[in-house]
# Entry
Amino acid sequence: MAYTAKIKVTLRQSILDVQGKAVEHALLNLGYGSVGSARIGKYIEVSINEHDRGEAERVCNEICLKLLSNPVMENYSFELEQA
# Structure
């Protein structure tokens, strides 16, 4: 069975998001005064071929920790959908 992992990686709240600040500043300069803040992240979709949902979650956690995120600076979350 195949699963699609939809993964979001974002900087931890305590880490200054320079790109997010640049976007926030640009939006304010464009006249969007109601914008309070902006943060930038990554969105990744990965196909995982495992028979068991629990095993697919384990694989997804591993690839997030080992490759897709920096656990010191970033948080990640994911959703698994049956493909």
Q: What stands out?
A: The domain at 2-82 is CATH 3.30.1280.10 (Mth169; Chain: A ,). The chain has a mean pLDDT of 97. Strands lie at 2-11, 41-49, 74-82.
